[in-house]
Design a protein that fits this description.
This protein is mainly alpha-helical. It is 46% helix and 0% strand.
Length: 182
């Protein structure tokens, strides 16, 4: 490139708009295939008996009908067709079926969240049990929570929670510029 914008060698557009020849010449021994913009040499006849007429510079055929093209692919695997025949899809579920499916999804989500919190936030159970009034149930829960938190600590699953907690306490205790003025 040069710094002179009036230089005729520099194209004005970012991409060439017209390619006259095939940019990929054939290798030795390969048959030459026609390029998209090459002139059409041998054109067959369509169903009406007239040769298709290409539009200037394109491969559009005026007499082509899009409805002649297949709309659905043929099944490639005969086992798929057999499976659709042997196990046809059932009717869509009614309101009761949809409600049951939603309850199953909700139940699974609650169980997953509970397990996640039991593993990664075991210290919260200890803190909660210490805030309750003394009694047989709270003492049992506190002792179980102590053992559970100790096991989780040995596993190392409490590290993400501890990292977030340390970052929060560091930010809370930091001296901020606006705080000094007040």
């Amino acid at each position: 490139m040069s710094d002179r914008p009036d230089d005729p060698e520099i194209p004005l557009a970012p991409f060439p708009t017209e390619i006259r020849a095939n940019p990929f010449p054939p290798l030795e021994g390969d048959a030459v295939e026609p390029y998209l913009d090459d002139p059409v040499e041998d054109v067959g006849l369509d169903s009406s008996g007239d040769p298709p007429v290409p539009v200037s510079g394109g491969d559009w055929i005026e007499t082509a009908d899009a409805h002649d093209l297949p709309t659905a692919p043929e099944p490639l695997n005969p086992l798929l067709a057999l499976g659709r025949f042997a196990f046809p899809p059932g009717e869509p579920p009614d309101e009761e079926g949809v409600a049951a499916r939603d309850r199953r999804w909700t139940s699974r989500t609650i169980v997953l969240a509970t397990v996640f919190l039991l593993i990664f936030n075991a210290v919260s159970i200890q803190n909660w049990s210490r805030q309750q009034a003394p009694g047989w149930v709270t003492t049992t829960v506190r002792r179980l929570a102590d053992v559970w938190a100790e096991q989780i600590t040995q596993l190392g699953a409490d590290q993400p929670r501890q990292t977030v907690r340390d970052g929060y306490e560091t930010a809370r205790d930091a001296e901020w510029a606006g705080r000094r003025a007040a």
